[in-house]
Amino acid sequence: MLLAGKKVVVVGGSSGIGLATAELAKREGADVIIASRNADRLNAVAEKSGVKAIPADVTSDESVASLFRACGQIDHVVVTAAQLRTGPFKTVAMEDVRATMEGKFWGAWRVARSADIRPGGSLTLVSGFLSIRPRPNSAIVGAANGAIESLARSLALELAPVRVNAVSPGIIDTPIRAAMPEEARRDMLAKTAAGLPVGRVGVGEDIARQILAFMTIGFATGSIVYIDGGALIA
């Protein structure tokens, strides 16, 4: 098993890409801790998956610091937590754009500062392909993703020999889309799939496998990998 004897913390691990990463790391032998701010969902997922749960809110300095005090020294950290709010650039509320940066970018910043990662271990951040393929009504998300990727490259130098990388997903069918009406969600995903070379949208495990690669390939640092089904070339 690729992660036998390793301690892995997944911040945002109660659903979607984070949960898929936690489950994959567990299958590969890791001692896994998942963290998110929804304690009830977190505990239910942890019990089902056989991992440890620690509630944490990435928008709080003290909450993130407390999480990593409880974790002690670790081998690998993954940050998938995000609270995305967006809308038309001229009318989206400043409260919403600030919340997006607070949860996505500053959350990753807090985790990187607080985590005690062993030399040779890794920190993997999750951005998103809007960083380089923008869409209308999503400027703040693209900006946050671009900031995450820049942060990963900078930290690869500053935190060395800890390795720091980022994975940038395309359209992934995760619970973050559950707020959409089901028919609209299915229609959007089907239309997206039809326009991709691979003929489907992504699932959480597609991204989790790239995150696992970043954990286990000791020569990978400062890398940004786009996993988008070919969206950037379509």
Low-confidence stretches: none
The CATH C-level class name: Alpha Beta
Range of helix content: 40-55%
The fourth-level CATH homologous superfamily is NAD(P)-binding Rossmann-like Domain
Q: Mean pLDDT across all residues, rounded?
A: 94
Total strands: the figure is 7
Total of domains: 1
With strands numbered from the N-terminus, the spatial order across the biggest sheet is: 3-2-1-4-5-6-7
CATH topology: Rossmann fold
Query: For the terminal residues, how far apart are their CA atoms?
Result: 36 Å
Largest sheet: 7 strands, parallel
How large is the count of helical segments?
A: 7
Q: Structural class, from helix and strand content?
A: alpha/beta
Rg, alpha carbons? 17 Å
Q: State the shape.
A: globular
Order of helices and strands: EHEHEHEHEHEHHE
**Can you tell me the CATH architecture?**
3-Layer(aba) Sandwich
The proportion of residues in beta strands is 15-25%
Explain how this protein is built.
Helix 5 links the parallel strand 5 and strand 6. The chain has a single domain, classed as Rossmann fold (3-Layer(aba) Sandwich), CATH 3.40.50.720. It contains 7 helices and 7 strands, in the order βαβαβαβαβαβααβ. The model has no long low-confidence stretch (mean pLDDT 94). With 234 residues, the chain is of the alpha/beta class. Strands 3-2-1-4-5-6-7 form a 7-stranded parallel sheet, with helices on both faces. Keywords: Oxidoreductase. It holds the Pfam family adh_short_C2. GO terms for molecular function: oxidoreductase activity.
